[in-house]
Amino acid sequence: MSSHTADNRSSLVWVALSIVYVVWGSTYLGIHYLVQTIPPMVGAGLRFVVAAVLLAAVLAIRSGPRVLRVPWRRLGTAALAGVLLLTGGNGMIGVAEQHMSTGLAALLVASVPLWLVVFRWVTGDRPAASTIAGVLVGFGGLALLTLTRGGGSGSALGVAIVLGASLSWSVGSFLSARMPMPANPFVASVYEMAAAGVTLLAVGFGRGERFHPHEVSQASWLGLAYLVTFGSLIAFTSYVWLLGNAPISLVGTYAYVNPAVAVLLGVAFAGENATWTIVAGGLIIILGVGLVVSTERRPREEVTAPVPPGTPRRRRERRRSPRVSRSTPGRPRRRTGVR
């Protein structure tokens, strides 16, 4: 590869990474505007159904309709993953943001990698001592935000909903790494988003949510369009490209940046306050997550990087270290972030 080609690739990496930094951090603000005049579950359902249709159309045009054909078993596991990750996880964030600030929601969601370490421990995988230390530090920050409700930035109900959403996302991430999924990661994302969108619409209408387009504000329409176009398509595509063209240690840095972006945008555009408990709790959580991620990406063990909705599952590479991990070779990376 020539130096000119390498320079172009490096520039594209930073462009794509900047998109992931800003867009995924801004999705919480997009949800904030969406739920102002669109019911949260119906709004999230529309978002994922539209995104699934658009992505399926692009795949069919580029590779032919046959690319969307998958075995029924893999279709079922993709649908299950979509319900856990996007319905129970991402979809509930909109419900929670009716009762709390966007910044507090983003910081609570940032704890997802910590839950995955707990699940690994329960199933017999023994993480390193420094990983356990990171989990304890991160849960300390989580406890501070939960007990103080972010210094009054959220209600107890909102905090409970976000913690439940984070737990659902964590369970979905943990199980999806152990289930047979469609070979094409983009196709898997189509069925995950479709299943999640249909489930959210069914639950939303079932619980009495009503969608009247003539009552929707311009801000909510723009929020929905932004979440579909930028949150579910552009940023997702950028992340997929980064996985194949940039070091995972660099890609994983978005996990530290997204919460800060969410807090700053909430203060700047939604009139939210960055209380001292949000700042302190957020820093503690990010410190804990950083310790976990930095430990997990050492040569002795596969990295566990935070991954958003619809992210493809990549096969684990052969480890360079002579030490043998207890994890089963060939399993894909776990997803550890709600967007």
What does this structure look like?
The protein has 339 residues and is mostly helical. Helices cover 71% and strands 0% of the residues. The chain has twelve helices and no strands. It has helices spanning 3-37, 40-63, 72-96, 102-109, 112-122, 129-152, 156-176, 185-206, 218-245, 248-251, 254-269, 276-296. Helix 2 (40-63) runs antiparallel to helix 3 and helix 4 runs parallel beside helix 12. The longest helix has 35 residues, at 3-37. The chain is globular. Mean pLDDT is 82; it is low at 300-334.
SSE arrangement:
Blueprint: H1 3-37, H2 40-63, H3 72-96, H4 102-109, H5 112-122, H6 129-152, H7 156-176, H8 185-206, H9 218-245, H10 248-251, H11 254-269, H12 276-296
Helix pairs in contact: 1-4, 1-9, 1-11, 2-3, 2-8, 2-9, 3-7, 3-8, 4-11, 4-12, 5-6, 5-7, 6-12, 11-12
Report a brief summary of the structure.
By secondary structure, the protein is mostly helical.
**Whole-Å distance between the termini?**
35 Å
Largest sheet: none
Count of DSSP H/I helices = 12
Alpha-carbon Rg, integer? 19 Å
- Give start-end ranges of low-pLDDT stretches: 300-334
- The secondary-structure element order is HHHHHHHHHHHH
What portion of residues belong to β-strands? Answer: under 5%
Query: What would the average pLDDT be, to the nearest integer?
Result: 82
What would the principal axes of the Cα set say about the shape?
globular
